[in-house]
Design goal:
By secondary structure, the chain is an alpha+beta fold. It has 16 helices and 23 strands. The strands form six sheets. It has a seven-stranded mixed sheet with strand order 3-7-8-14-11-10-9, with helices on both faces. A five-stranded mixed sheet has the order 16-15-17-18-19, with helices on both faces. The chain has a four-stranded mixed sheet with strand order 20-21-23-22. α4 crosses α8. The longest helix has 26 residues. The chain is globular and about 80 Å long. The two termini are 30 Å apart. The N terminus is likely disordered. The protein binds one RNA strand of 77 nucleotides through α1, α2, α3, β11 and β14.
Length: 547
RNA sequence: CGGGACGUGGCGCAGUCUGGAAGCGCACCGGCUUUGGGAGCCGGGGGUCGCGAGUUCAAAUCUCGCCGUCCCGACCA
């Protein structure tokens, strides 16, 4: 049972270099109040204290017109929390965020979702950023059909086998039974393979680098908005190469320079990169590379994958070319994708009890300028001027001049929606020549002179971006543990990621982990890079519970 | 697809056990007063009680079936 790679000495290895804190209370241990009473110390209190301190420090002098309410901070005692606290019920919190931040609804058909404008704007930002990087990698966009002949799927044995259970198949069209049923694409390797085979004749046609933005359908048994829906939006890249090494390096390059770079630099989500174990590979791939992120509850989320398909699809679709010597060769192909699942990752990696927190580079609205009140009609024009100046400075800013709605409500709403910076302008500020700038990431507020707030915003946004990445990285690292046994990995996975020597993981170990819903998310070299040429018995298996 | 919980105005819920005129809070609309962290008062609108069959004089309530949602498993971007 224990393979040669899994010596019995494993049980005696040190448990952890960094020991997990006492296992977090299981749901049953956390006494959920019968009525969701307002916590005595709300999140407001913390933020507010920081606020008053900052205000006093920065303003100096008598500061006679510091808005008293900012300092006095009437806590939200007596009010129900806006969202179910994460610590109480993380999945419920996620649902609450989707609803309250107006992100998405369930569609009428099970497993489908409606992406609301605010969330779709975020998706459009993701598309823009990822698309630019894909083009930077040399791939061109194209579009292939939604309907695929069922026979195409069947040409690659593992591919059909893997996807059959989740296919949606159309058997009737135009009121008539179809001669050959058509599959609603679950992914497009097969159609694209068919056409690549047609287009590639010579080594001069290679590499052929294509990408498409599309929707795909995979009938899901257990859907979850953004994370696992029966229809989702994504990008799927498909490439053909003259050699295995060229295909491999391209797949790796997409993972590192497109996906990881986007996730780290734009989403501010630190991701691990690694290779999937055989059981977790894409159906039909010879190697699957992945970006794995940690969510706020310590669970893992696969954020994107890049596959080496070897010659499996090229063989199935007769994708051949003549090489420099006039010899017929079979192509080597890759495919890679990221999807609307990243929306779920974004929400769960950064969100807190007050709602969404958006990294500035992604945020569709980076700064909201709020007219606190406007007694004499002078504040709104000033605020609108700030918005215009911010826009001119390249900042995505918008105005909130809904003064008929109370300030508190609007502030709460923008926090729910995760806008990185709020600029609050009221009559007193105007009289003092200041505005109050509030950061969503850490809740701090400080006054700025109205004349130099605009030029200071880009740097502040950059600071917020960096702080969010640093905080997410720190949170992940605190929940990552080096372990020396399967038992220790199981315990650590209750909390976050376990780094377990791969040589300790045999089939029996995978089964034991699986019994507790813990899986090997990926394999890495000891320094956290892709396995590459690292000897197999030196690899590290990242084990975790996953979405 | 297996186990569990649950479907009552947009959201959260009471009412269901023990059948007998659909209620509450928030949200929404109007008016006035408000507006520097979830406003107040007054007045309104909105629900074939998830859907379909039964039982009954009478069904949100009882019975059966189906659908959906959430959690836990098996499957996945």
């Amino acid at each position: 049972m224990a393979g040669a790679s899994s010596g019995s000495s494993s049980e005696s290895l040190a448990f952890c270099t960094r020991r997990p804190r006492p296992r977090s209370p299981s749901p049953s241990a956390a006494p959920a109040p019968a009525v969701r009473a307002a916590p005595t110390t709300s999140l407001w209190t913390a933020g507010r204290r920081a606020t008053s301190r900052t205000l006093v420090l920065e303003r100096g002098g008598p500061a006679p017109s510091v808005p008293t309410a900012l300092v006095a901070s009437p806590p939200m005692a007596g009010k129900a929390p806006v969202l179910t606290p994460q610590s109480e019920d993380f999945p419920r919190w996620y649902q609450d965020v989707l609803n309250k931040a107006e992100l998405a609804d369930n569609g009428p058909v099970r497993g489908t979702m409606v992406i609301r404008p605010y969330a779709y704007a975020l998706w459009e930002r993701m598309v823009a950023e990822v698309d630019a990087r894909i083009k930077g990698a040399g791939a061109e966009n194209a579009y292939f059909p939604l309907f695929i002949p069922e026979s195409y799927l069947q040409r690659e044995a593992e591919h059909v086998e893997g996807f059959s259970p989740e296919l949606a198949i159309v058997t009737v069209g135009g009121g008539k039974e179809l001669e050959e049923p058509v599959v609603v694409r679950p992914t497009s390797e097969t159609v694209i393979g068919e056409f690549m085979a047609k287009w590639v004749q010579s080594y001069r046609d290679l590499p052929l680098l294509l990408n498409q933005w599309a929707n795909v359908v995979r009938w899901e048994l257990r859907p979850r908005v953004f994370l696992r829906t029966s229809e989702f939006l994504w990008q799927e890249g498909h490439t053909a190469h003259a050699s295995e090494s060229d295909a491999r390096s391209y797949a790796e390059s997409i993972l590192r320079n497109v996906y990881r770079e986007f996730m780290v630099d734009v989403l501010a989500i630190p991701v691990l990169i690694g290779a999937k174990i055989a059981e977790e590979r894409f159906a039909g791939a010879t190697n699957t590379l992945t970006c794995e992120a940690m969510m706020g509850d310590g669970k893992a989320l696969q954020m994107g994958t890049s596959h080496e398909l070897g010659q499996n699809f090229a063989t199935a679709f007769d994708m051949t070319f003549s090489d420099e010597h006039g010899e017929q060769q079979v192509c080597w192909t890759t495919s890679w994708g990221v999807s609307t699942r990243m929306m779920g990752g974004l929400i769960m990696a950064h969100g807190d009890d007050a709602g969404l927190r958006l990294p500035p580079r992604l945020a569709a609205t980076q700064v909201v300028v709020i007219v606190v009140r406007d007694d004499d009609g002078a504040v709104t024009p000033a605020a609108a001027g700030l918005v215009a100046d911010l826009a001119a400075a390249g900042v995505r800013a918008r105005l909130d001049d809904r003064v008929s709605t109370g300030f508190g409500r609007r502030a709460t709403e923008w926090e729910l929606k995760g806008v990185p910076l709020r600029v609050e302008v009221g009559p007193r500020d105007l009289a003092d020549g200041i505005v109050v700038v509030a950061r969503r990431d850490d809740g701090t507020k400080e006054p700025r002179s109205i004349t130099d707030v605009v030029p200071s915003v880009p740097a502040l946004l950059a600071e917020v971006q960096d702080a969010m990445l640093a905080a997410a990285t720190d949170a992940r690292d605190r929940r990552t543990f080096d372990v020396g046994s399967v038992d220790a990995a199981l315990e650590a996975a209750g909390e976050g990621f376990a780094r377990l020597p791969w040589r300790l993981v045999d089939a029996a170990a995978i089964a034991r982990l699986g019994a507790s819903a813990v899986t090997v998310r990926c394999l890495q070299s000891p320094d956290g890079d892709l396995p590459g040429s690292t000897p197999e018995d030196e690899l590290v298996a990242i084990c975790a519970r996953a979405y």
